[in-house]
Design a protein that fits this description.
The chain is 39% helix and 12% strand. The chain is an alpha/beta fold. The chain has an eight-stranded mixed beta sheet with strand order 1-2-3-4-5-6-7-8, sandwiched between helices. It is globular, with a radius of gyration of 18 Å. The N and C termini lie far apart (54 Å). It binds iron/sulfur cluster. Iron/sulfur cluster binds next to helix 3 and helix 4.
Length: 315
């Protein structure tokens, strides 16, 4: 779809909704303008290889910082999503055919960017019989083949009603399996209507059952109207599902048609969430206003491995 057309029809299901006003951003929400040379190079490489990034499609506020450090998250399976979550800026609609060259181009991008750690995510593809699992598996395989020093993290959809899809992804041996719970269960009907909280939780649990050596990771956005107690309950649920790594970040509203920001959680509250989560047994926790699933994913992965080694050494 041409860019202008895509912008116009990006969220057809949200077009007629009333605008949601958002409170003014506090001083701790900082966005670095994308002006670096590395930003331009990353953008050029993605266009040349016909790859999409969630950094651009989700209008991530960290793009200036991440791309300056040559860290981008590739979004496979096209740029049109079959779901219409109230928080997400990725375009909704009927996706096109799966690009057979995408796994190879993802591997080439990892090599050309010299990535130590690559995050691969995707749109939801409820229209495909495997939800896109085979494309994830092929992409992992191609990164291994073409950029052997790169570790791979996948951030997948929930594969709801796609029996066998999770197994296909885990058998391809990603280093990290990430699936975001996004918010507390009580807010699912408004924020993530196509998903089910306990299905997503079970997906994380099952990933670890299939391969106990895989690191599992999940994330929450806060500032959507959840309470502190609800967040702590989600942490407990994640620990029951053996999730290793938790990310928590402030929800920011992509457009007035998206869910409004209920409030800006303070940096002190993020610090407190981090302390509480570590006390609950997560191996690693990233909790700051600007934290996103793939923010600093390379450094976090190194710390995650170190934390597991320390834990194993203690017995
Ligand atoms: S935080 Fe993730 S999605 Fe955002 S710019 Fe960085 S790599 Fe991309």
């Amino acid at each position: 779809m041409a860019t202008a057309e895509k912008q116009k029809y990006r969220h057809p299901e949200k077009r007629n909704r009333p605008d949601n006003p958002s409170p003014r951003k506090p001083k701790w929400i900082r966005v670095k303008a994308p002006t670096s040379k590395a930003y331009g190079e990353t953008r050029k490489l993605m266009r040349e290889k016909n790859l999409h990034t969630v950094c651009e499609e989700a209008a991530c506020p960290n793009i200036g910082e991440c791309w300056a450090a040559k860290h981008a998250t590739v979004m496979i399976l096209g740029d049109i999503c079959t779901r219409a979550c109230a928080f997400c800026n990725v375009a909704t609609g009927k996706p096109g055919a799966v690009d057979p060259m995408e796994p190879e181009n993802t591997g080439i991008a990892a090599r050309e960017m010299g990535l130590k750690h690559m995050v691969i995510t995707s749109v939801d593809r409820d229209d495909l019989d495997d939800g896109g699992a085979r494309q994830f598996a092929l992409s992992i395989q191609k990164v291994r083949e073409l950029s052997s020093g790169t570790t791979v993290e996948v951030l997948t959809p929930d594969f709801r009603h796609k029996d066998g899809a999770l197994e296909i992804v885990i058998q391809a041996k990603p280093d990290v399996f990430n699936h975001n719970l996004e918010t507390v269960p009580g807010l699912y009907p408004g924020i993530r209507p196509g998903a089910r909280y306990f299905h997503s939780l079970r997906l994380l649990d099952r990933a670890k059952e299939i391969d106990p050596s895989v690191f599992t990771k999940s994330g929450l956005m806060v500032g959507l109207g959840e309470t502190r107690e609800q967040v702590l309950q989600v942490m407990d649920d994640m620990r029951s599902a053996n999730v290793d790594f938790l990310t928590i970040g402030q929800y920011l509203q992509p457009t007035p048609k998206h869910a409004g920001v209920d409030r800006f959680v303070t940096p002190e509250e993020f610090d407190e969430y981090k302390k509480l989560a570590l006390a609950k047994g997560f191996l690693h926790v990233a909790s700051t206003p600007m934290t996103r699933s793939s923010y600093h994913a390379d450094k976090d992965f190194a710390q995650l491995k170190e934390a597991r080694e320390t834990q194993l050494a203690k017995g």
